């Protein structure tokens, strides 16, 4: 007697949820000769998911090209920052050392991911990373030393907050002054290096969480949604309410 479609659906759904191409193919192979339309639809959908996972593995293989190039280095660290452009809040940098056998999929430039995917990946990265470090440079310091130097300061702090010393740094486009470790600046590195992408995701999630907290402390500026960036609504709020304590004075002089 053929299995009920509802039972088959549960089995295929479990295989798809595993995220394993091999598990999906193994599961659907038992049902590929089933002529029922409902089963054929389930099998086809699962096979498409398996193909998507295969393509993602290929993309991630390419994302580890720099890590393979410097594989002789025991600890390869990706560095990125978030928050150079906002009118309020800190710039946040992250440093991430991924394991040599890293199997995390979907790492990418944090701006190309949904907020939910960033949250999910941030937790996975923190769990699987050899080490990660964060650096924050606040609005007052940004006004004092300018955003570029504040960014470098946050990056140095992120490196110093690692539990192990990196042998090499893969940076998103910049060379950080005052760091003796070998550096490899990579243009658009958060879309080319898995380590830098991981850093961009952690930095983005950490800064977003901070600005969401600031929205409760300083309501009226829309920090929860704009994260301190200069949206039209944010600029209008500054003109109406003046500056909050976390606004960057050097960025907002034209609006007050």
List the main descriptive attributes of the protein structure presented here:
256 residues; 5-stranded mixed beta sheet; alpha/beta; 2 domains; single chain; 11 helices; Nucleotidyltransferase, domain 5; 12% strand
Task: Describe the 3D structure.
There is one protein chain. The protein is flat. It is 51% helix and 12% strand. Helix 1 packs antiparallel against helix 2, helix 5 packs across helix 8 and helix 6 (139-145) packs across helix 7 (147-160). The protein has two domains: 5-63, no CATH class; 74-250, Ribonuclease H-like superfamily/Ribonuclease H (Nucleotidyltransferase, domain 5, 2-Layer Sandwich), CATH 3.30.420. The protein starts with a helix and ends with a helix. The chain has helices at 5-18, 21-28, 37-63, 65-69, 115-128, 139-145, 147-160, 194-217, 223-226, 232-241, 249-252, and strands at residues 76-82, 91-97, 131-137, 168-172, 182-186. The longest helix has 27 residues, at 37-63. The protein is an alpha/beta fold.
Order of helices and strands: HHHHEEHEHHEEHHHH
For the record, what CATH class of the largest domain applies?
Answer: Alpha Beta
Question: Rg to the nearest angstrom?
Answer: 23 Å
* Structural class designation: alpha/beta
Count of separate DSSP helical elements: 11
Strand fraction equals 5-15%
CATH superfamily of the largest domain: Ribonuclease H-like superfamily/Ribonuclease H
What about the largest sheet? 5 strands, mixed
Helix share bin: 40-55%
- In CATH terms, what is the architecture of the largest domain? 2-Layer Sandwich
Compute the average pLDDT: 95
Cα-to-Cα separation, first versus last residue: 76 Å
Shape: flat
Low-confidence stretches: none
Overall number of strands: 5
Major sheet: order of its strands?
Answer: 3-2-1-4-5
At the fold tier of CATH, the topology name of the largest domain is Nucleotidyltransferase, domain 5
The total domain count is 2
């Amino acid at each position: 007697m053929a299995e009920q479609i509802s039972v088959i659906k549960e089995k295929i759904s479990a295989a798809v949820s595993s995220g394993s191409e091999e598990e999906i193919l193994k599961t659907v192979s038992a049902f590929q000769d089933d002529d029922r339309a409902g089963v054929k639809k389930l099998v086809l959908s699962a096979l498409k998911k398996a193909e998507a996972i295969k393509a993602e593995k290929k993309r991630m293989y390419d994302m580890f090209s720099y890590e393979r190039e410097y594989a002789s280095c025991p600890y390869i660290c990706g560095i990125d920052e978030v928050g150079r452009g906002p009118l309020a809040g800190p710039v946040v940098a992250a440093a991430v050392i991924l394991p040599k056998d890293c199997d995390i999929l979907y790492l990418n430039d944090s701006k190309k991911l949904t907020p939910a995917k960033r949250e999910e990946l941030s937790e996975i990265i923190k769990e699987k990373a050899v080490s990660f470090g964060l650096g924050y440079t606040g609005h007052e310091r940004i006004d004092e030393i300018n955003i570029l130097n504040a960014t470098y300061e946050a990056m140095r702090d992120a490196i110093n907050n690692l539990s192990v010393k990196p042998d090499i740094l893969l940076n998103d486009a910049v060379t950080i002054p005052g760091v003796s470790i070998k550096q490899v600046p990579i243009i658009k590195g958060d879309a080319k290096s898995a380590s830098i992408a991981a850093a961009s995701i952690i930095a983005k999630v950490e800064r977003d969480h901070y600005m969401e907290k600031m929205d409760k402390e300083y309501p009226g500026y829309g920090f929860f949604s704009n994260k301190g960036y200069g949206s039209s609504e944010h600029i209008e709020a500054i003109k109406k309410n003046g500056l909050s304590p976390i606004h960057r004075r050097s960025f907002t002089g034209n609006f007050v």
